[in-house]
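Troubleshooting: if your tokenizer reports a length mismatch, compare your output against this known-good record of 556 residues.
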Amino acid sequence: MMSDTIRPASGQYEMTRLGGRGDEESGPRPDDAPGRAARAATSAGQFFSTLSEGAWDGAKTGGGKVWDGTKALGSMTLNGAKSGGNKVLEGSKTLGNMTLNGAKSGGSRVWNGSKTAGKLGWQGAKFAGKAGWQETAASAADLGKFTLAPLQNKAWGALSGHALQQMITCGLPTMAREEAFIEAYNQLLPHLVEKHPAAAVTLQAVISLANVALQHHLREPRLMRQTEPDAQPQSGSAQPGEVAVRGQFGLSPSQANAMKRDKPAEWARLSQQTVKDSKRVSGQQVMAEMLNVGMSLAGVLSGNPALTARVMSTQLRNVIYAGARESLQATGSLVASRKGTPGYGVNDDNMSTNAAWYTLNTLAMGMLQDGLIQKALPKGYSVSGPEIRDAAGQRLTGKALHEMGTIVSALRSACNAFIETGDAFLGKHYDSKQVGDTQKFSPSLPMKDYVRLLDHSIARLSWNNFANSSTLASQQILAAITKGHTSPALSSLFNNAGTAAAFGLTYKMVNQIYQAHSKVRGAIAATPAESPAPASIPAAPAESPAPVSTRDPRPG
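Known-good structure output:
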């Protein structure tokens, strides 16, 4: 926030400038003209001189007439003065009465109006206050129900299972990615970016092109796979299968059939929405890579190689996280539905609730994380992404970097695991609740669905790359505006708010695409291999495999 406001200079300004003979707006008079006082005296002298001469001539020629006229004039003046005085007195009395009556009437009306306005204002204030209090109380009650409702189904075991699972499937990948983030940055900066800046920018461009290609040529076609045996490709652009649409919006087969029968236009809209959201996930990857290449090039051209190194190390960080996280998610699970009722995914409304929770939790944990790191490091040390500096402002290297980097990575891992525990718990809660079930602690090692690395991990890359690149770009803009003079608290708030907004605004879209991919993978896995059965033995119906998990905590 700027501390200097624009204020007008103090002082008074003359609207007109007075000259020797009046204001100059009317125009100056000639310099040789007499002043006002001199002109008035001359006119008066001329008038009285003429008057005296006329009076003397009149006295000589008609003194008697003058005397008679004077007497008549005096009589008329006296009579007129009497008559006028009486009328003035009567008028004054009438005016006084009217003024007094008007004042009394006006005062009464003003008082009545004031009482009425005050009464209405008080009633309005009471009504507004009461309505505001009721709204506030209702909001607080809703928030309390939202926070405590998942725990009312005695799901403490499930909550413990989610916490333990996220310590493994989220905490460990986060620890690994942060360690790699810090080490890669401090190796790339002196050994590649500073020595071979052109090669660094070229490498970044290649990485960005590869990320975009993965979205368009691998992930998107996997979502468009038709899982219905009798599905016929529609004319025009590619259309997703029914399973993908149901998975995206958390619809059961019966709900989908009813919508296709009774509301075909709505079903067509949802199908188009699935296509659009899939392309938007790819689109945000394109935006992220444009920012990444732009910042990488800007770092080289502006003599800021640290920016170029940070962009590259951030992308390495996200690749490690996406691969490790989804591999562990496919390996084990510690939570299941209590009755075993298969879920269809979180529906549209509940997904919006999850997005709000995730946004607020990301902001809170980000602020907490920064505070904990500042307390854990020696006094005077500072952290900015992968860069750790000592009290003298020097970048850490060697053993000191490894020790401090481990502390920073561990705290980031703990906070991210907390975020994902809440997200996974709420997601499973709504997924189960929609089909009349609850969740429970249930350890298992499915060790399958590793093909999620071909779509789920790639979608996660888009999400994380977009959030990281947009936040980093915002940081550069803030630094340019403030010339780097920003307090640590304000910088932390700005950075974490940007990260929470980037993840929160795209949460619903990305996580619905997660669900769509999950349901398509499950349907493909459930499709029996096309092999001819012996003629004498009828083909046995294929067993439905264990459902593929549709809910897994997200990014970080």
